[in-house]
Design a protein that fits this description.
The protein contains five helices and no strands. It is mainly alpha-helical and 66 residues long. It is globular, with a radius of gyration of 11 Å.
Protein backbone atom coordinates (compact mmCIF):
# COMPACT_ATOMS: atom_id res chain seq x y z
CA UNK A 1 0.00 0.00 0.00
CA UNK A 2 1.19 3.48 -0.70
CA UNK A 3 1.08 6.60 1.41
CA UNK A 4 -1.09 8.19 -1.27
CA UNK A 5 -3.64 5.37 -0.97
CA UNK A 6 -3.82 5.86 2.80
CA UNK A 7 -4.09 9.62 2.40
CA UNK A 8 -6.91 9.26 -0.14
CA UNK A 9 -8.79 6.80 2.06
CA UNK A 10 -8.59 8.89 5.23
CA UNK A 11 -8.85 12.25 3.47
CA UNK A 12 -5.56 13.71 4.69
CA UNK A 13 -2.20 12.79 6.14
CA UNK A 14 -3.33 14.43 9.37
CA UNK A 15 -6.13 11.86 9.62
CA UNK A 16 -3.69 9.04 8.88
CA UNK A 17 -1.60 10.22 11.83
CA UNK A 18 -4.64 10.59 14.06
CA UNK A 19 -6.03 7.14 13.20
CA UNK A 20 -2.66 5.45 13.74
CA UNK A 21 -1.93 7.54 16.85
CA UNK A 22 1.43 8.63 15.48
CA UNK A 23 3.14 11.99 14.98
CA UNK A 24 3.69 13.83 11.70
CA UNK A 25 7.48 13.16 11.55
CA UNK A 26 6.66 9.48 11.00
CA UNK A 27 4.76 10.33 7.84
CA UNK A 28 7.63 12.54 6.69
CA UNK A 29 10.05 9.64 7.20
CA UNK A 30 7.76 7.27 5.29
CA UNK A 31 7.59 9.69 2.37
CA UNK A 32 11.38 10.04 2.36
CA UNK A 33 11.88 6.25 2.46
CA UNK A 34 9.21 5.71 -0.17
CA UNK A 35 7.05 3.26 1.79
CA UNK A 36 4.85 2.69 4.83
CA UNK A 37 6.42 0.18 7.27
CA UNK A 38 4.72 -3.20 7.10
CA UNK A 39 3.47 -3.15 10.72
CA UNK A 40 1.75 0.18 10.07
CA UNK A 41 0.30 -1.21 6.84
CA UNK A 42 -1.31 -4.00 8.85
CA UNK A 43 -2.78 -1.43 11.24
CA UNK A 44 -4.16 0.56 8.31
CA UNK A 45 -5.64 -2.62 6.80
CA UNK A 46 -7.39 -3.30 10.10
CA UNK A 47 -8.66 0.29 10.38
CA UNK A 48 -9.99 0.20 6.81
CA UNK A 49 -11.53 -3.24 7.31
CA UNK A 50 -9.43 -4.61 4.45
CA UNK A 51 -10.15 -1.90 1.90
CA UNK A 52 -6.42 -1.12 1.92
CA UNK A 53 -4.28 -4.23 2.03
CA UNK A 54 -0.65 -4.47 3.13
CA UNK A 55 2.10 -5.30 0.68
CA UNK A 56 2.81 -9.00 0.25
CA UNK A 57 6.55 -8.40 0.61
CA UNK A 58 8.02 -6.24 3.37
CA UNK A 59 8.73 -2.92 1.62
CA UNK A 60 11.84 -2.49 3.76
CA UNK A 61 13.42 -5.38 1.84
CA UNK A 62 12.61 -3.79 -1.51
CA UNK A 63 13.75 -0.27 -0.53
CA UNK A 64 16.71 -1.23 1.65
CA UNK A 65 19.09 1.11 -0.19
CA UNK A 66 17.09 4.22 0.74
Amino acid sequence: MTLEEAENYFGSLYRVCKELKIKQPNITAWRKKGYIPLLQQYKIAELTEGELMPDEIDPKLIHKNK
